[in-house]
Amino acid sequence: MTALLGTHTVDTARCLHYKDRVYRNDGEGGADIAPSFAELRRWTCQAGDDAAAPFDEQTPMRFDNAYYKDLVARRGLLTSDQALYGCGGPLDHLVEMYSKDSEAFAKDFARAMVKMGGISSPPGMPVEVRLKCSMVYY
Questions:
Q1: pLDDT exceeds 60 at position 85
Q2: Phi, psi of 77 (to 5 degrees)
Q3: Is 11 annotated as a binding residue?
Q4: Domain boundaries, the chain
Q5: Can you give the pTM of this predicted structure?
Q6: 93 is in an annotated binding site
Q7: Where is the Plant heme peroxidase family profile domain (predicted)?
Q8: Per the annotation, does 20 bind a ligand?
């Protein structure tokens, strides 16, 4: 799952989904977020709940390991992203490895995608292929 979340390196999130993270503790963000990053994202949110911000500011259109570098720097956009790093233990080591070794990330990501592709849906559950992840097709 840690490798699969690397897809966030080429995506965006709306303020609605990250504003609690950047406005925590009287508007200054929490201890698990870099203060300058929280301030930048609060500035983005001034445009409203639909204002989008990239998960990876440095290379938002390139599939790379910058997402993990951001997590190490406490610049994860979503609370669920930053939860991958900062508590110690195996996940921290994995995130640190991915932040330093883009080939290890790419290899593990490919393996995880193949493994996930082999998961079949429960019997009777309709299968939906989304061309745009934010839209549900009925």
A1: yes
A2: -70, -45
A3: no
A4: 4-112
A5: 0.85
A6: no
A7: 1-137
A8: no
Q: For residue 16, what pLDDT is reported?
A: 95
Q: Is 2 annotated as a binding residue?
A: no
Sole residue written with tokens 């790093």: 85
Which residues, 6+ apart, have CB-to-CB distance to 75 below 8 Å? Answer: 33, 34, 37, 57
Q: Does domain 4-112 have CATH number 1.10.420.10?
A: yes
Q: What is the mean pLDDT of the chain?
A: 90
Query: Is 12 in contact with 52 (CB distance < 8 Å)?
Result: yes
pLDDT tens-digit readout, 108-133 = 999 999 999 888 888 888 777 777 77
One-letter amino acid for residue 111 of the chain? R
Calpha distance 57→62 (Å, rounded): 11
Task: Yes or no: say if 14 and 49 are a contact pair by the CB < 8 Å rule.
Answer: yes
Write out the E strands in the chain.
12-14, 52-54
